[in-house]
Design brief:
Elements (H helix, E strand, L loop, with lengths): L2 H25 L1 H6 L11 H37 L23
Helix pairs in contact: 1-3
Length: 105
């Protein structure tokens, strides 16, 4: 996969995760109770919305993006291990090559 496709896909999955998480949170009975869906708005508590909504938003954005990135990494790793290995040029192995001190290029 190209890097731009992976990045774009991760952003789309993250955006869909945010929309889905906020929608699920907003439609739950617990949230409806806190937002005043009870009889005569008893138990209305906007503090619950102010404290929970940022966490729901972040979780909806981060979890799908991490899963997408992990899947892309695993697929890329699987493709690399399936490709034929590159042989050493001119038959020189690393143990026979000239060692350089750190910092010298």
């Amino acid at each position: 996969m190209k890097r731009d496709a992976v990045t774009g896909g991760g952003c789309l999955v993250s955006a869909a995760g945010v929309v889905g998480a906020v929608w699920l949170w907003g439609s739950s009975d617990r949230t409806q109770r806190h937002l005043g869906n009870e009889f005569e708005n008893n138990g209305q508590d906007f503090g619950a919305a102010l404290t929970e909504l940022p966490f729901v938003f972040l979780a909806g954005a981060v979890v799908p993006a991490v899963v997408w990135g992990l899947g892309a990494w695993l697929l890329g790793r699987r493709r690399r291990t399936g490709s034929p290995s590159v042989s050493e040029p001119s038959g020189v192995s690393e143990s026979q090559g000239v060692s350089q001190s750190p910092g010298v290029s």
